Amino acid sequence: MTQMIQTSVRVNGVDRQVQAHPDTPLLWVLRETLKMTGTKYGCGVAQCSACLVHIDGVAAQSCQIPLSEVGSRAITTIEGLSPDSSHPVQKAWIAEQVPQCGYCQSGQIMRASALLKKNPRPSRDDILAEMQLNLCRCGSYRRIVAAVERAAREG
Ligand code: FES
Ligand code: FES
Predict the structure, then answer these.
(1) What is the pLDDT of residues 49-89, one digit of tens each?
(2) Which of 53, 71, 95, 122 has the maximal Cβ count within 10 Å?
(3) Is the pTM of this model over 0.85?
(4) Ligand 1: nearest atom to the Cα of 63
(5) CA 9 to CA 75: how far, in whole Å?
């Protein structure tokens, strides 16, 4: 059985000491060790993106990344996307009243914010291609697209 390791992870701009098995998925380090529960577990097999975070600014499924592979890379979770929920994507999400049950939404917002970072003026097809990588069992897809368009327009 693998030994626990003590290591440091940089989350939302802060170095955090964690102790866990090296093969523990980052998702569980965030949720269980650091008690940051904004990042959600949906499937654990790279299908839903409920667990999406940014690693060095790029969208990544945290259920697929073992602690041993995080290294010194900067992790951003929904809790750290903005200090006061004022990120253009968060404001657009409220304006368009996107969430239904809400479970998938932190992953959706992290996907949308990563998209707009690399492509501030996405076409509708760009938005559809990117956001289809995140599942929403409530079917809030139409409002998600409207919110990404609004964030691109008003951001
Ligand atoms: S929980 Fe990570 S992709 Fe579904
Ligand atoms: S809002 Fe319920 S799963 Fe997306």
Answers:
(1) 999 999 999 999 999 999 999 999 999 999 999 999 999 99
(2) 53
(3) yes
(4) 2
(5) 8
